[in-house]
Amino acid sequence: MIVDELPEARGWDRLRRPVWLFDNVAKRHLYANDAALILWGATSREEFLERDCSDQSEAVKARTQRLLDDTANGEVVSERWTFYPNGEPTPAKVLASTFRLSNGRAVIMMEAEALEVEADQLRSLEALRHAPAAICLFRPGGGALFRNPVAYSIFGPGDLYLEKRYENLSAAKTLLADAWTGSPGSALLKAVTLNGERWMHTTAQRVTDPVTGEAALLWASQDVTPQIEAEMSLVKAAERAESAEARERRLTDLSHEMRTPLNTILGFAEILERETTCPKQTDRLRRMLAAGQQLDALVNGMLAEEAPDETSGSGKAATPVVEIEAMVPPQRLRILYADDHENNRMVVSAMLGALGWECDTVNDGAQAVERVRAGNYDLVLMDIQMPVMDGVEATRAIRALEGEAARTPIVALTANTLDAQVRRYRAAGMQDCVGKPTAMAELMQVVMTWGGAGAEVEIGARMAQVGG
User: Fold this and answer.
1) What is the pLDDT of residues 411-424, one digit of tens each?
2) I want to staple 36 with a disulfide (CB 3.0 to 4.6 A). Which of 32, 54, 126, 197 is the partner?
């Protein structure tokens, strides 16, 4: 029996106050005098020493380990404990110290004095012990007077050292200073804990130490890391969405500003090259076309670098283009072209006229809707960026018309050809998208594809998908 190995035991046996030893590793008692056996309601010393104490709550485990840490250098800690012999609560004042066995092993020595405590006070004390928040009481200099088990499990032993405990030190110092001047407050502090960096919602309040009557600081912290991380995740997602939207706007504006004049230059150069009969002029126009196409390639490459997540960098239609001479235009078609840029309207009208088709033009999407409502067009070529009503809104409005006008084929003719943009065009009811600058052969092919009667079945199916 362990008593035989303890020379001190004979002296402890004569004491009237309860004394016992507890091994925090084995979770068993190693010794108890008669007064301790009475306190614990034990039938015998043997029965008491055989008790298995491994089913301790997390709060008791943390509190017991704290006692070992706080008394490791010979200190004695005085605390109030509530024991439960045979399930009955028994409050006691306890003096705890570290006792070393002959083999050097450290165990806890407990000396207890029974207390008469009011029921409300006892319940308040137990609630504080098991509260989920970390609750501490500090002296004016930061020395620890009390830590509940949760505070010990989060911060470990030690006094209130703000420099070591908090990363946002300024906020912590402000909270501390305000509390000592009588202004209780709260702050969100990023703490360095035994479990790593955690966000703690912390409150501080000046109170009176009930033992000494001196001023003390009540410092309570609640771990809100999951909530803060969730909020930060939402903020980052919103920032990413805003960044993507801003990037698309920038690319849209850049593409429009650079490709619109290129469309005019290349379009008129191609028309003139096909109309001229002068060999010298033909050579010059072909050189102009080649230079313009090189510039177009540079613009496309630059825009592709600006939009690395997009696969549509060139702005050209996916449909392969064949030479005009190998294509035979179908029956005479009536085409409506909506674009707010006068040069674009002139270029496209000249191209379609040279191919033998009739082309009416309007300046915005609202005018396009009215023309389609009143007219009988085989195809609508629709710019996207226009005043009054843009091309997407105009397409939705046309699809909402009554009768055959709602089935008019619509093809986007635009400098804005990112994948996400093209998906929006198709979702609105457009059949295809052609990028600017537009070559005559490419324009001829898209008109032949969608301007004939054979496109009606395809358009009907597409309208059913978008709810037209």
Assistant:
1) 999 988 888 889 99
2) 32
